[in-house]
Specification:
Blueprint: H1 8-23, H2 28-34, E1 48-51, E2 55-63, E3 70-77, H3 91-101, E4 111-115, E5 118-124, H4 126-133
Antiparallel strand pairs: 1-2, 2-3, 3-5, 4-5
Length: 134
Amino acid sequence: MRALLIDEAAKVKVAKLKQFALDHRERLADLMRRANKPCAPGDDSNFVLHLFDGYRVVMTMEEQLSPLGWCWHISISIPSLSCHAKPYPHTFAVDEILNLLVEKKSARADHLKASAGIVEFWFRYEELAVAAQK
């Protein structure tokens, strides 16, 4: 099992990551256009957070189909120690990372997916959802 260290430096990085994601949020139409291209937000280091012992987090703000709407899209992965397996990050570490990234997160994500060693979560972003209704 890998160690997870969340120190003040990590918290500073999180604040920068979240602000960058908010400043560069992706509308649904743009997200759909990008789906057919080989590039992904994880290719842009501004959307990536590296934590102690190999934890890699990619965080974006994106618009999804209703009822989700605007949401944080978070993916968490760790590198493989062998060429045969793509391990998943430990659930305790994932919970701690999510607590760091998503303020007042609900007991569960609005949507989640796991494949190829990557766990992904979508958390509705209420501030943008409310602003869109006005």
